[in-house]
Amino acid sequence: HHSSVMPEEIAMGKPITESEVRDLFQVWNGALATLDPKKVASCYAKEGVLLPTVSDVPRSDFAGIEDYFTSFLTKKPQGEILQSEVTIGHNWAQDVGIYEFTFGATGDKVKGRYSFVYVFEDGEWKISHHHSSVMPEENSAKKITKGEVQNLFQLWNNALATEDPDAVAKRYSKNACLLPTVSDVPRTDYDLIKDYFVGFLKKKPQGKILESNVTIGHNTCSDVGIYEFTMGATGDKVKGRYSFVYVWEDGEWKINHHHSSVMPEAWLGAAPKPVKKNIVKRILAKLN
Prior knowledge:
- By secondary structure, the chain is α+β, with helices and mostly antiparallel strands.
- The protein contains ten helices and ten strands.
- A hairpin with a 5-residue loop joins strand 3 and strand 4.
- The termini are far apart.
């Protein structure tokens, strides 16, 4: 009785094609879909190492890998490879590139860079090394000038011109909040924002900024001041105060916060005008 491993697989290596290497991702992705961290961890080799996207701790054994996915799977992730580069060796293969996850728990989409090194172990291809990282350029501050911030208003204004409430609502970020001029109800999701503009767009508004004050931060910026609308349906002109806070989201600037209010003095009477700095200086100079 003679029993031995197949010698050709040792000498020649387990054959695998580029497309088959890429398909190994789907084995792992299918394990994610089960939402069972043990099944995901079982995709890794006995000495597999995971360098996760959102943990500083290298995971170098089954328990550590399972622990990471216990948390990650609460987001209900499903991945898709966008760009792949495959290398094939002797009983090992490598797939590196860019993937994108859709999180079923929130609907968010997140891109990342990946490296998978697979080894043929106990009759199966297993993940020996998995390195996942965020897209570095997306985490660096998106540059924008004062003039470009002010021009973001025109994207919103052009959406108003379409008279399509869906087009206007799409100018707002996923977690946006709109405090409208003529509604007491804060609009904190897409449907509520769209609902407000269903009514407002019947006036055929077009806006113009009269006074603007811009602040720029890390992937966020704000433009606050006074704007004036011309209502095409009636010809009326209405001034208001505005606050736009923009965030860089999914490759474009979106409105994260929009507060619009009437000019208060028209309703409450004239307020004392602020004293200009040069007048104060003159008064102080006389007193001295």
